[in-house]
């Protein structure tokens, strides 16, 4: 079917011939100009002078002698005047940061008021009256109050009158704010877009000398639909002055039917305003032409894009000409998934793809680098320090160009010290990019200039190293251009602002940048947003994200003007969005042969899971041929299989095990208990050497709390080793416990016991927990006084012999005993525990049963210490004690089975049995054919290796 713009080109060529150069052709957006020029060239087929092309904003801005004020100039002007009005009312000024979200709404309302020629003074007076009614008529019945509340939907019954009083005051100052704001801009030679429209509409087109440039031709408005009141008035005046032609893209299917919302604004333009459509007698393509519609129901957001390869298969092989295929992103967040799906070539043939939407800077590494710098400056300004996570993000950022050697050097140093917050001067002293990046901003005016310096430094480094990608180069240029513009705008306004607020403005500005991607707008597959399709037609149309709530949108945006007042004054309301969306979809469909709708059927926080009402309406009312497809994703779970690691015929495993037998490696009690609990964990940890990567963290892990406690107890008793410990000695030293805890904290967390620091938040909680644990231990020790400490944190080693393949073998075991003391002639091994260890056990065989539920790691470890110490010191009758700080006050410190404590003769009887079971387990470790997982999942529920052995 013939495209709308081709029909326009044919009609204009016939009307004006060589006088086309005297015409101005006005569109809603820039894109249709290229298509119309192409059609002119195809029709005329010889050199000709082109008409002038404008967007409507460009055309009316050119007709005004004033410049258009950008958003930031409007914001700073509005803020200054607002605070002046507050001062007149003897109220405190409002900060820029608090005013910014308010200003965005006020400026949006002002723009709509101007574009629709509304009397601002009257509108805000009505708002004030309504809010006063809402405040004062509390005696009304609920039904009466509900009726009045429809005028003031934002604040209804139950809201505090204080809030309503503040709003009443705001409405009273709004007319002054409106007039003073526009007057101030005008004095500087600026207008807003909305006030340009009002300024022109309230004058006469006969007085616009600018229009005389087109006296020999016409001003031609192409493809307009919804008009503001100002546009409608200007269009009407231009038609009455015989200066304008209007080409409306219509179809009787929705134009003649008053129930069709797609024709709402066209009926208003043609029937009520009397604007004459050049194409007033055209056949209804919606009713007469063939339309094949495919509806794809898919499950998932990104899956909508993945279906493109099926829908566009024919287009990949065909020679795509202008007007053939378009992919319309009703949900523009699908741009990246769509780009990742459409291939660059198929069977060696290049796929022509033109993306009109532009690539969002906020999705790029350049924005990530700028955002890192801005946030780093906030940290430095607020604390003089930088968090490790922020620095790590900088070190690993792809654009910093830091060598792996430099990254490793910095990260290793900080990991060793466990530095959670780094002094920024320490980074500046490193020189190079670190110095440039972390130089502190001193004044608000330096925010933009310093960021420009950082980006230029990075850009030059990448260019010199020939590591700059094309898309990155375009993004750098666009970012630097925007920052230079901001620098010019901010120059006169930010001298007294907080640096943090200027950083916030820069972040918001950069987030709005989009860079056009390369492509040919006239050939190949076109990838567009819905707004960009205005005036364009395609034989094949694919809609992605065609869900209810996305098209049409479910919100008109933030405004202080309630819905009922908007209706009274003719301002846009929610139904307008329905009509505009329906029209844009219908006008695309009326000339398309192959139509494809894709929607997400899953319900989540971002989508309803329902197709758009526009699709439902087409299904019920049109005579299109519909075909339905459902992409069902099968969910398959992998069959659980046991993972075993065979030892035989594996030289590395055999060699590593042999190192234990050769005494090149020493087995620790914790390694043995890991093997007992879950043999395959032992393989990953001690044979394969797979370790959890170390991280700098402000969070103190459970094992670190235990390490801090052990250090405190070592510090507490280190001067008393070899002496008799009395209650008096403990009480005297108890006063110094808080300092010992801080020293231990610095030793464990930062490898520096002398480090002085300011404790915050969770760190204070950890100190309090350790203090409580220390006091539990000291209370227990007081109850045991007098006793004598023999050693603290003593390293002990012992040989353990066991049978292996019919021969005698041995391994060396070692460990550090928390404390050895003597009480009533009995030598005791004391082990401190901060976890949930138990003192009870079933029997010795169950201690070593990897597939059992009664493994007691603490008992195995303490008995190993006992065995090793007896060998080391040549003593007998050494007794194991366990100080479980969480339960010690109730359960005591002695292991027990049933009611029998593990002490005295019973302990001595148990020791040989324990040693025999230990030898059997060591034989299994070296003789068993494979490492496997325990049959009891509780034995490895905290294992870091679970994903490796299929659990």
From TrEMBL:
One term of GO molecular function: DNA binding
Task: Kindly give the InterPro entries that the UniProt entry links to this protein.
Answer: P-loop_NTPase (IPR027417), PDDEXK-like_dom_sf (IPR011604), PDDEXK_AddAB-type (IPR038726), Restrct_endonuc-II-like (IPR011335)
One of its GO biological process terms is: DNA repair
KW Flavoprotein (keyword) present: no
SUPFAM superfamilies registered for this protein in UniProt: P-loop containing nucleoside triphosphate hydrolases, Restriction endonuclease-like
Question: Which residue ranges does the record assign to the PD-(D/E)XK endonuclease-like domain?
Answer: 667-885
Which keywords, in A-to-Z order, does the entry hold?
ATP-binding, DNA damage, DNA repair, DNA-binding, Exonuclease, Helicase, Hydrolase, Nuclease, Nucleotide-binding
Q: What is this protein called?
A: PD-(D/E)XK nuclease superfamily protein
Organism from which the protein derives: Pedobacter rhizosphaerae
């Amino acid at each position: 079917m013939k495209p709308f713009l081709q029909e326009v080109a044919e009609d204009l060529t016939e009307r004006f011939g060589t006088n086309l150069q005297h015409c101005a052709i006005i569109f809603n957006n820039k894109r249709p100009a290229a298509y119309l020029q192409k059609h002119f060239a195809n029709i005329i087929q010889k050199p000709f002078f082109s008409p002038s092309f404008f967007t409507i904003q460009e055309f009316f801005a050119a007709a005004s002698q004033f410049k258009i004020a950008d958003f930031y100039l409007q914001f700073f002007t509005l803020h200054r005047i607002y605070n002046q009005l507050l001062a007149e009312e003897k109220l405190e000024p409002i900060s820029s940061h608090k005013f910014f979200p308010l200003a965005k709404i006020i400026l949006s309302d002002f723009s709509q008021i101007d574009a629709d020629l509304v009397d601002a003074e009257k509108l805000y007076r009505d708002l004030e009256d309504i809010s006063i009614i809402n405040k004062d008529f509390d005696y009304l019945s609920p039904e009466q109050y509900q009726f009045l509340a429809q005028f003031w939907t934002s604040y209804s019954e139950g809201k505090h009158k204080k809030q309503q009083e503040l709003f009443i005051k705001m409405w009273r100052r709004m007319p002054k704010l409106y007039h003073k704001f526009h007057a101030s801009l005008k004095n500087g030679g600026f207008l807003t877009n909305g006030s340009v429209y009002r300024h022109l509409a309230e004058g006469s087109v006969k007085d616009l000398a600018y229009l005389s440039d087109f006296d020999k031709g016409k001003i031609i408005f192409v493809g307009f639909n919804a008009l503001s009141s100002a546009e409608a008035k200007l269009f009407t005046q231009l038609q009455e002055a015989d200066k304008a032609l209007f080409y409306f893209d219509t179809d009787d299917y929705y134009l003649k039917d008053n129930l069709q919302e797609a024709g709402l604004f066209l009926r208003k333009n043609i029937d009520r305003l009397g604007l004459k459509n050049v194409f007033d007698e055209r056949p209804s393509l919606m009713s007469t032409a063939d339309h094949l519609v495919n509806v794809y129901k898919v499950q998932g957001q990104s899956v909508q894009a993945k279906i493109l390869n099926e829908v566009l298969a024919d287009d990949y092989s065909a020679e795509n000409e202008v007007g053939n295929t378009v992919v319309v992103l009703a949900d523009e967040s699908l741009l990246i998934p769509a780009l990742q799906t459409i291939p660059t070539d198929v069977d060696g043939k290049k796929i022509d793809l033109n993306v009109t939407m532009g690539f969002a800077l906020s999705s790029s590494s350049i924005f990530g680098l700028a955002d890192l710098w801005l946030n780093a400056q906030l940290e430095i300004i607020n604390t003089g320090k930088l968090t490790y996570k922020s620095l790590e993000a900088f070190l690993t950022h792809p654009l910093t160009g830091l060598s792996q050697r430099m990254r490793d050097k910095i990260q290793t140093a900080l990991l060793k010290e466990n530095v959670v917050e780094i002094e920024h001067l320490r980074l500046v002293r490193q020189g190079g990019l670190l110095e440039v990046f972390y130089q502190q901003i001193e004044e608000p005016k330096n925010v933009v200039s310093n960021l420009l310096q950082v980006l230029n430094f990075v850009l030059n480094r990448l260019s010199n190293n020939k590591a700059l990608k094309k898309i990155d180069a375009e993004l750098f240029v666009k970012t630097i251009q925007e920052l230079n513009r901001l620098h010019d705008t901010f120059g006169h306004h930010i001298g007294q602002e907080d640096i943090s607020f200027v950083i916030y403005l820069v972040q918001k500005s950069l987030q709005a940048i989009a860079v056009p991607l390369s492509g040919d707008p006239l050939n190949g597959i076109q990838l567009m947003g819905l707004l960009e399709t205005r005036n364009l037609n395609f034989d094949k149309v694919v809609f992605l994200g065609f869900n209810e709530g996305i098209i049409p949108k479910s919100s008109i945006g933030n405004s202080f003007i309630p819905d009922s007042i908007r209706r009274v004054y003719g301002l846009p309301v929610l139904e307008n969005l329905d009509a505009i969306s329906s029209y844009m979809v219908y006008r695309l469909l009326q000339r398309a042969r192959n139509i494809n709708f894709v929607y997400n059927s899953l319900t989540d926080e971002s989508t309803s899971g329902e197709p758009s009402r526009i699709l439902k309406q087409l299904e019920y009312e049109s005579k299109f041929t519909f075909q339905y497809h459902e992409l069902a994703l099968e969910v398959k779970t992998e069959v659980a299989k046991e993972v075993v690691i065979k030892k035989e015929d594996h030289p590395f495993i055999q060699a590593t095990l042999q190192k234990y037998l050769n005494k090149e490696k020493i087995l620790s009690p914790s390694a043995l208990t890991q093997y007992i609990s879950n043999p395959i964990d032992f393989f990953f940890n001690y044979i394969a050497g797979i370790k959890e990567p170390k991280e700098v963290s402000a969070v103190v892990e459970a094992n670190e709390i235990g390490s801090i406690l052990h250090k405190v107890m070592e510090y507490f008793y280190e001067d008393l080793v070899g002496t008799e410990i009395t209650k008096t000695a403990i009480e005297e030293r108890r006063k110094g416990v808080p300092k010992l805890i801080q020293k231990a904290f610095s030793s464990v967390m930062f490898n520096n016991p002398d480090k002085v620091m300011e404790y915050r938040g969770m760190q204070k909680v950890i100190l309090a927990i350790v203090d409580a644990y220390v006091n539990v231990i000291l209370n227990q020790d007081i109850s045991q006084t007098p006793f004598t400490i023999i050693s603290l944190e003593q390293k002990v080693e012992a040989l353990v012999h066991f049978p292996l393949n019919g021969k005698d073998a041995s391994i060396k075991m070692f460990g550090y005993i928390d404390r050895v003391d003597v009480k009533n002639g009995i030598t005791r091994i004391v082990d401190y525990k901060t976890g949930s260890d138990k003192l009870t056990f079933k029997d010795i065989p169950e201690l070593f049963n990897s597939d059992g539920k009664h493994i007691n790691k603490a008992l195995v470890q303490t008995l190993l210490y006992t065995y090793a110490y007896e060998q080391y010191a040549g003593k007998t009758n050494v007794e194991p004690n366990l100080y479980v700080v969480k339960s010690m006050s109730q359960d005591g410190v002695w292991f027990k089975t049933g009611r029998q404590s593990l002490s005295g003769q019973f302990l001595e009887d148990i020791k040989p049995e324990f040693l025999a079971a230990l030898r059997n387990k060591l034989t299994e470790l070296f003789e068993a054919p494979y490492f496997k997982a325990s049959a009891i999942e509780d034995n490895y529920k905290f294992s870091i290796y679970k994903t490796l052995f299929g659990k």
